[in-house]
Amino acid sequence: MEIAVVILNWNGKALLEKFLPSVINYSPQAHIYVADNASSDDSIAFLKDKYPQVSIIQNTTNGGFAKGYNEALKDVKEDIFCLLNSDVEVTENWLEPIEKAFKDFPNTAILQPKILDYKNKDHFEYAGAAGGFIDRLGYPFCRGRVFQTLEEDKGQYNDIKEIFWATGACMFVKREVFNALKGFDEDYFAHQEEIDLCWRAHNRNYTILYVGTSHVYHVGGATLGNMNPKKTFLNFRNSLFSITKNLPKRKVVPLIVARLFLDGIAALRFLFQFKFLHLFAILKAHLSYYYYFVRIFKKRGVINKDIKYFECTSIVLSYFLKQKRYYYEIVNQRSSR
After folding, report:
1. What SS3 class is residue 161?
2. What is the domain-level CATH number for residue 24?
3. Between the CA of residue 88 and those of 7, 73, 100, what are the distances in Å?
4. pLDDT tens sequence across 95-113
5. Angstrom distance (rounded) from CA 68 to CA 329
6. In which band, very low, low, confident or very high, does the pLDDT at 335 lie, cut at 50, 70 and 90?
7. Which of 15, 124, 163, 326 has the fewest C-beta atoms under 10 angstroms from its C-beta?
8. 138 three-class SS
9. Helices and strands counted in the chain (H then E)
10. CA-to-CA distance for 195 and 56, rounded, in angstroms?
11. Cα gap 238→37, rounded to integer Å
């Protein structure tokens, strides 16, 4: 299988200078692309001068993560796409376990490696950690990261395990599956579009894996920090989008009602913390959701009523009321491969 490592860039020359060398040095079997989202800095000139072996795809606009990759990947013909953030340092032999997993588990459509924190390399990183899940209410979380609690990496997740979603920070996806799913939903712009993509893959009975024998280091927050109000807006709204698109119809309305109530509680929490911009971000997220509701609902495709989409009842209840901070405290772990 041929692998294309595709790095989406927007005014990220400094990140390319710092992290592209590791990708080039440790990915000899891959074709490396940089997809540029109409940068106004000198990213392209830098690449042409320093790394002529890297293929450049120039998008005409900055359409965010979703549209940026959709446009760029039309021109990529390799069998496997690796969607890699520009703030990721890869490690020696990182691709070998990935190639093996795709061969050993042929129904696998999407997978991710272990994501560790570049600034604290013995801990998991917020965006993806050791594989993503959602609870019964549609809230996402990871092994190795629940809300702002990050676990130390002690080898506890050096396994290969089925997961619900793989992080867009370092996601491997088969080209034929990505195209069959018609790529990312561009209404998301950024954040949680990978959860929607993975959910649609599950609805078509594909497998999504975490491969803990491969690891990379992610800076995280290089575009939007974890506590940026715009990220709050996108995460709250886009999570509602995914529920509306991908659940069986009989579950959509009651779950949306429950989520709107719980999102209201989250808004009150921000109020009491004097984080008013985050409070307004949640209100804006709900207004945007109402505005797009009909459009999003019409995007419903294949729905698999038999998949187990949730890993636990409520991550919010477990974390904030029961004071359970770690994945292994919250769920009964399913067997690894």
Report:
1. strand
2. 3.90.550.10
3. 10, 19, 22
4. 999 999 999 999 999 999 9
5. 38
6. very low
7. 326
8. coil
9. 11, 14
10. 27
11. 21
**pLDDT per residue as tens digits for the range 14-55:** 999 999 999 999 999 999 999 999 999 999 999 999 999 999
pTM, 2 dp = 0.94
What distance in Å separates the CA atoms of residue 258 and residue 261, rounded to the nearest whole number? 5
Q: Is residue 68 part of a domain?
A: yes
Q: Which pLDDT belongs to residue 333?
A: 47
122 domain-assigned: no
**Cα Rg for the chain, rounded, in angstroms?**
19
Model confidence at 307, pLDDT cuts 50, 70, 90, reads: confident
Count of domains forming the chain: 2
The 10s digit of each residue's pLDDT in 144-184 is: 999 989 999 999 999 999 999 999 999 999 999 999 999 99
Residue 157: what are its φ and ψ, rounded to 5°? -125, 40
Residue 321 lies in a domain: no
What is the C-alpha separation between 287 and 280, in angstroms, rounded? 11
204 is a domain residue: no
Residue 308 pLDDT grade (very low, low, confident, very high; cuts 50, 70, 90): confident
- Is 314 within 8 Å of 135 (Cβ atoms)? yes
DSSP class of residue 210 equals E
Residues in the chain: 337
The 10 Å CB-count burial string (b at 16+, else e) for 157-193 is bebbbbbbbbbbbbbbbbbebbeebebbbbbbbbbbb
Give residue 240's domain range.
229-304
Cα–Cα distance for residue pair 154/92, rounded to 1 Å:
19
Helix, strand or coil for residue 248? coil
